[in-house]
## 1
Amino acid sequence: MRSPTDRRAKVGTSYEPVTLRPMQEHDLTLLHAWLQRPHVVRWWGPHDRSLSLDEVRAEHFPSSAQNAGVRQYIASLGERPIGWAQSYVTLGAGDGWWESETDPGVRGIDQFLCDPNDLGRGLGTRMVEALVRLVFSDPAVTRIQTDPAPDNVRAIRCYEKAGFRAIRRIVTPDGCAVLMTQPRP
Ligand SMILES: CC(C)(COP(=O)(O)OP(=O)(O)OC[C@H]1O[C@@H](n2cnc3c(N)ncnc32)[C@H](O)[C@@H]1OP(=O)(O)O)[C@@H](O)C(=O)NCCC(=O)NCCS
């Protein structure tokens, strides 16, 4: 039997990279299921009801015009899907987000691991590092930022390990957050 320490052992092997592929419409059912899981709902909401598949489709697969600047990905470790991630252009994000931004090169990122058994084992850091590499592969990108809730200590530590630094507390349309940024290396 494995000890609790073993259960928290690192996931995967050093030669097994975390990969990111663009999310497709056929991934919506998977995403819908992941968005119902308590460890995701805790930080993503909504807290008072379940999301329908149509709501997930409307938010994550809207018309191309509404979706401009947003890139969504399914992360995998080998053949195993492990989570969802997105990057977006912060300038002009709308709905009250990042209204003081003037730099078109800034990208925001969001992500989660889909399996609660994977949390706290280093996999999220590898996923964020892979996303940062992918986002910076666009030479137009000047800076990447993220905005975890101040009490999401695990996410904040994960982002620090992936190269982000906490700048200040902010208020977003989703509530209080810690603005964390990473300039182009
Ligand atoms: C956020 C998330 C992607 C991070 O991935 P992860 O694989 O769990 O994170 P990692 O294991 O790479 O790193 C977590 C770090 O936080 C630390 N940590 C975890 N809980 C902690 C706590 N309560 N207090 C202090 N540190 C804590 C871990 O020890 C680890 O740091 P260490 O390697 O220095 O010991 C993942 O936890 C997740 O999907 N969470 C649910 C959804 C979510 O919060 N998404 C982000 C919204 S901004």
## 2
Amino acid sequence: MLKTDVLIIGGGLAGLAAGSALEGKKDYLAAEREHRPGGLAATLTKGRFRFDYSGHLLHLRWPKTSKLILAALRGNCARLRRDARVYVHKSWTPYPFQANLSGMPDKVKAECVSGFLKAYKAGVRTGDGTETFSRWTRRVLGGGISRHFMLPYNAKLWQYPLERLTTEWCAPFVPVPKPEEVIEGAYGRRSEGLGYNTVFHYPKRGGIGALPNALARGLGGLRLGLEVESVNLKKGVANIRHFGPVYFRRLINTSPLDEFIERAEDAPAEVRRAAARLRHNTVYVLNLGVRGVKSDMHWGYFPGAEFPFYRAGIATNFSRALAPRGCASFYIEIATAGTPLDLASAETAILKGLKACGLLKSSSQVVEKLWLKIPCAYVIYNRERAGALPVIFDWLKTRKAQSIGRYGAWKYSFMEESVKEGLEAAEKLLKRW
Ligand SMILES: Cc1cc2nc3c(=O)[nH]c(=O)nc-3n(C[C@H](O)[C@H](O)[C@H](O)COP(=O)(O)OP(=O)(O)OC[C@H]3O[C@@H](n4cnc5c(N)ncnc54)[C@H](O)[C@@H]3O)c2cc1C
């Protein structure tokens, strides 16, 4: 029978950060079901290529976590200036669309600028997050920008009715420009500084997986290939597949919250009902190794219905070391509401789309491919989420358990935030031991 002070479910960035903060202070077991650490921040090798789970770029905002991440990477990190674009009406224009309409046909530009100014004149720029996305975007960004980019792009990404999607997630992710920036971006200079990701970091070698690999080194309590099948928080015991029971005093969960509650034997009915109301989409990523690519672009957004994907990027423009000499690598993302994707026909449609926008000349350029599936990719900000989370978290508090990370906390967040939450969860636990 195994006993530990702290059981951590998951060895992604949140679990690794929690483990690193407990190392040498408490006995802990970080159980990761895969045979590699990193969760979504892992990098896989296929042939002579290294592929991430789509673009995974480091947006560093907080001093403590920035320092920890950069120290872990020990100089294996480049700082890059974003080159992101949007492909609309058969033209490329820089991202963000709302502040860079210069590449659009005159009629579209006029519709977007006049719609924005009309919305701006009507006042009330912010919202409290409860407004639906379809209403918010029309009210704040205007009819044109909404029709040509915001509505079709977000419908493709979220795979959820935008009339029911709330807007708590918008503030950091959807830049709202000033009127002069919209006019300048349409008729004058390119607007570069808007959005959360104008500058980002990425490992020079090893893909984003270099970060979790570095964090995992020296973690005495990390165990790979251990899947937590069930937990009983009241009794302080977890059952691990092919391993048996593990007794713990405190628990930190980083696995998807809905699945975790399903596995919690002692969760009361109202907590189960709350978890059953949570929704997420699924993302399929086609990674391609490609010869003879000319573009310097980092990634592009594709709102048009003629493209099955919402975003496509060129990972070798973050790091040349991801592909052999003379080759580039693409990642192309398709979201679904959970229905299985027919990979063969999706691939045909993707190649057609890449050729239509000029990123690829011929399918014969493709020399390697790897499909990756992210079953729980973006948590859905539906009305039910706001009501369900307090019910679940209040119960977890009574059991002295914490659920953190992008999926444990059920939010739209980034790698750095998972690291931050891992550190904070461990610190909280040590303080109140
Ligand atoms: C398409 C996409 C693109 C993204 N791009 C970026 C980006 O550019 N920049 C950025 O900063 N962030 C990005 N993110 C977000 C980023 O991936 C996450 O914020 C971060 O990796 C989450 O780390 P985590 O540890 O919270 O969760 P995870 O990485 O999901 O880790 C959870 C771990 O728990 C394990 N696990 C689950 N169930 C069990 C179980 N029962 N027993 C044992 N182990 C279990 C899983 O295998 C996994 O390793 C992106 C996400 C997606 C979906």
## 3
Amino acid sequence: MNIDQLRQRFPNEQACRSFFESVMWQKGRYCPHCRAEKSWLLKGSSARSGLYQCSQCGRQFTVTTKTPMHSTKLPLWKWLLAMYYMVNSSKGVSSVFLARWVGISQKSAWKLGHAIRQMMAPDSRLLPALSGIVELDEKYIGGKPRFENGITHKRGKGTKKQ
Ligand SMILES: [Zn+2]
């Protein structure tokens, strides 16, 4: 997906929120405070969008409650954008570049990067284990070829490595 396609797929905050909700609550919405599975959406002008109330403990939550994204004042779109850059860069993204690309301060970018790496940890709820067809970038396996006088070993696509 390129950046234009990303923007089309997520034209507004609601689209981003729906996406995060579908990933976080794949088996149904639950309260991050008490894990109860019954809750309702709070509506009305005073309610923030995506705010739910738990029917068991009565506390309120959104999809980001108790995740590293919690208490951020950044729009969900910026989180999504930062995640997009981070997962699409095989060498990692510095907070300097992240700040520039996402349009936030470098301090925010540093925090964002840290939180995203935390959410990408193997036991994270946000990014579940891969399943189905998984594609990897190409990778050549094997050490440095033995030195043979006059022979130049090809690198990259021309290599004889597996
Ligand atoms: Zn609860």
